[in-house]
Design a protein that fits this description.
Structural class: alpha/beta
Order of helices and strands: HHEEEEEEEEEEEEEEEEEEHH
Radius of gyration: 23 Å
CATH class of the domain at 116-287: Alpha Beta
Largest sheet: 10 strands, mixed
CATH architecture of the domain at 116-287: Alpha-Beta Horseshoe
CATH topology of the domain at 116-287: Leucine-rich repeat, LRR (right-handed beta-alpha superhelix)
CATH superfamily of the domain at 116-287: Ribonuclease Inhibitor
Length: 294
């Protein structure tokens, strides 16, 4: 009898511990509820039962008693992302892409120090981009293409020292590229096509030694392409067409042996490096990138 009571106590203790660990702070739960209401949760494709435990909510991942992932892509979200998201202090992944979100980004979004992936592409978000990214040292992916963002690309974006993907294509961004981009030495994909970016590119592209994709097409860039770009040996995709570059001659010395897609307004270089059919295909894939990676 004593052994039965002993084992019953152990089972109860372990079960109680599991329940405690599954719970999240009230502040995190309240933000999720605010988010649900702000984005018309009752009309989501996969909605939440607010009376159930948050661990059962679609797209919510909880670990060690905190929300670590919020994946609600292609879920018919409407409305705005509410301020207060910084209470999700352990959030690593935020994917709200392919929805109908509007308005500006939450002001405290840049305070998510553990965030690794931020995907907001294919929405109707607007306003200007945040200026300070000093707390987001762990961010590896920043994808916000096909939105309504305006203004310039802030120099603070160079603070994202671990960034591997930067995709701001198909917005209304203008001005020149900030020189701080050359600090993103881990960058593998730089995609900026279809904006109103202009001026010469005064960046030492040669510092981006891990760069595989460089897509600058359909902007208003001019002048000579930086000669250091020719030293990038890992480039696989290059799209430069639809600009006003004066010269791309530096690319004649390009060292990359992995190049599979090349497109520019220079027919000689297109013949030398390019595969036009593959270029057009990749442009479409970049603009309407699927979510299968998540």
């Amino acid at each position: 009898m004593k052994n039965i009571l002993k084992y019953s106590f152990i089972i109860f203790f372990l079960a109680s511990g599991f329940i405690v660990n599954a719970q999240i702070p009230k502040s995190e739960k309240q933000y999720l509820i605010d988010f649900y209401k702000s984005t018309v949760g009752e009309q989501w494709q996969n909605t939440w039962n607010l009376k159930a435990d948050p661990s059962s909510w679609y797209g919510v991942e909880i670990s060690d008693g905190h929300v670590v992932s919020l994946k609600l892509y292609r879920n018919n979200l409407n409305g705005k992302i509410p301020n207060g998201i910084s209470v999700l202090t352990n959030l690593k992944i935020l994917n709200l892409s392919f929805n109908s979100l509007v308005g500006n980004l939450p002001k405290d979004l840049i305070e998510l120090e553990k965030l690794q992936s931020l995907r907001l592409e294919m929405n109707k978000l607007g306003g200007t981009l945040p200026q300070d990214y000093s707390k987001m040292k762990n961010l590896e992916e920043l994808s916000m293409f096909n939105n309504l963002f305006q203004g310039t690309i802030p120099s603070g974006i160079g603070q994202l020292i671990n960034l591997k993907t930067l995709n701001l294509s198909s917005n209304y961004l203008e001005g020149s590229l900030p020189k701080s981009i050359e600090n993103l030495v881990s960058l593998e994909r730089l995609e900026l096509f279809g904006n109103k970016l202009a001026g010469s590119i005064d960046i030492d592209l040669g510092r981006l030694i891990n760069l595989k994709e460089l897509i600058l097409s359909y902007n208003q860039f001019e002048g000579d392409l930086p000669s250091s770009m020719a030293s990038l040996s890992n480039l696989e995709f290059i799209q430069l067409q639809g600009n006003n570059f004066r010269s791309l001659n530096c690319l004649l010395r390009m060292k990359s042996k992995n190049l599979t897609v090349f497109d520019s307004d220079d027919e000689f270089l297109n013949m030398k490096f390019g595969n036009n059919e593959a270029s057009r295909t990749h442009l479409v894939e970049t603009k309407y990138e699927d979510i299968k990676r998540n």
